[in-house]
Amino acid sequence: MENFMTQILHGYVRHKNPYHNDLHAADVTQTVHYMLSQQGLANWLTDLEIFAAIIAAIIHDFDHTGTTNNFHVMSGSETALLYNDRAVLENLHVSAAFRVMREEDCNILSHLSTEEYREFRSLVIDMVLATDMSCHFQQIKSVKSIIGHTDFSSLEKSQAMSLVLHCCDISHPSKKWDLHQKWTMLLMEEFFLQGDKEQALGLPYSPLCDRNTTLIAESQIGFIDFIVAPSLDVFGEMLDKVEQKNLYTRSPPISESINEEPPAEGKPSALRRKSQSLSGAIPNEAKVESAPECNSPSPSEPAPSTSAPPSPKAIKPRPRVKRPWLPHLEENKTNWKARTHRDAELRAQLSVVHDNSNGEEPPARVIV
Fold first, then answer.
1. Which of 10, 15, 20, 136 is catalytic?
2. What's the sign of the alpha-carbon dihedral 30, 40, 318, 292?
3. Spatial separation of the C-alpha atoms in residues 216 and 335, rounded to whole Å
4. Alpha-carbon distance 308 to 223, whole Å?
5. 23 annotated as ligand-binding
6. Which long-range contacts (C-beta less than 8 Å, at least 24 apart) are formed by 8-15?
């Protein structure tokens, strides 16, 4: 594991990216760990699935070039040619990481059986490819459609795990202001460096990559309103659904199973105790009936009189998983709105100076 992590670290730092580096990988991995452990998802996943989720988080931006998929496609890079212009970076990350895992001294998967390896690889590929922002709206729409139905069992584990990693990858606006602001400025600097390359190559600027015209505060408000908040809303609804259906199951600590010897042929491993979908998370004979609706009488109790409200004891409120990200989203959006007003005032002052001096146009971007 130490050799593997060392190689992954080298891949993250060799491009010297302001944002997509080892710190971003650590931040996303810590956030995934929080979502799994503190939000209860770890009790629903097998040890193999938890292991896949953590490794996917660690390698999800491995060997990132500091430029976007659009830049690779527009510039005709070798990487874009290799992956046919589709999910260029995401394919690069997961492919390069598995090449590292094939090295003898970095093989962290030697304890897995053939079947477990295939499942692990499939989960990691699905999760990392789902971080491609071009898949964002379809991914959110698909999961939202499934959790909107009474029968929630059609949601595959891989879909749920992919949503977890995607939400964690874009989660910095849901953290404290000082962290969010630092991550934002690092990301914008990486975008601006790409814009400089695009200008040098005679390419049009990609969105948010022109350092002279990009409005940072406005862009972050839009990012929160249209991307981050809706994603976390769906994620929270998914957690609520899992809780309501009583589909959490208990798993022993990862350490008890990942160090096991490979199972004998035909013998199931502790790493694969649960099925891939919610419908198989608990054996049929062990499944618990879902809680009755708020105003539905218990089968063993008489129906409440229509002239009087039901007893409070008969009402079972639907579980709602805590959403610690909501206050930070609101606070950060409020702070960015304040910045937009200050930036507008400063641009107005610069415009007056420009009119009086006939100098160059003042920049639209103002970093405070």
1. 20
2. positive
3. 12
4. 48
5. yes
6. 8/58, 8/59, 8/62, 8/97, 8/100, 11/62, 11/63, 11/96, 11/97, 11/100, 12/61, 12/62, 12/63, 12/64, 14/63, 15/63, 15/64, 15/65, 15/66
Structure confidence at residue 245 as a pLDDT band (50, 70, 90):
low
What are 156's strand-pairing partners? 277
Q: Output DSSP code: residue 228.
A: I
Is 220 part of any known ligand binding site? yes
> Using CA atoms, how far apart are residues 96 and 91, in angstroms rounded to an integer?
8
The answer on whether 24 is annotated among ligand-binding residues is: yes
Which token pair is 213?
């015209």
Average pLDDT of 68-94? 98
Torsion of CA 314, 318, 323, 329, to 10 degrees: -100
> Distance (Å, rounded) from C-alpha 44 to C-alpha 67?
36
29: which 2 tokens? 């991995």
Write down the H helix ranges in the chain.
2-13, 22-38, 47-59, 69-75, 78-82, 88-102, 114-129, 136-147, 157-169, 177-201, 216-223, 229-244, 254-258, 325-357
Residue pair 130/169 in contact (Cβ under 8 Å)? The answer is no
Question: Residue 90's closest CA among 117, 41, 124?
Answer: 124
Q: Summarize pLDDT for 284-308 with one digit per residue, the tens.
A: 333 333 333 444 444 444 444 444 5
Is the CB of residue 293 less than 8 Å from the CB of residue 68? Answer: no
Sign of CA dihedral 39, 45, 47, 49: negative
Across the chain, mean pLDDT equals: 84
Residue 180 assigned to a binding site: no
Q: What's phi and psi for 156, nearest 5 deg?
A: -75, 150
The response to whether 20 counts as a known ligand-binding position is: yes
Tell me the one-letter amino acid at 338.
Answer: A
pTM over cut 0.90: no
In the residue annotation, 20 being an active-site residue is answered as yes
Q: Angle, nearest 10°, between helix axes 216-223 and 177-201?
A: 110
For residues 130 and 142, is the Cβ–Cβ distance under 8 A?
Answer: no
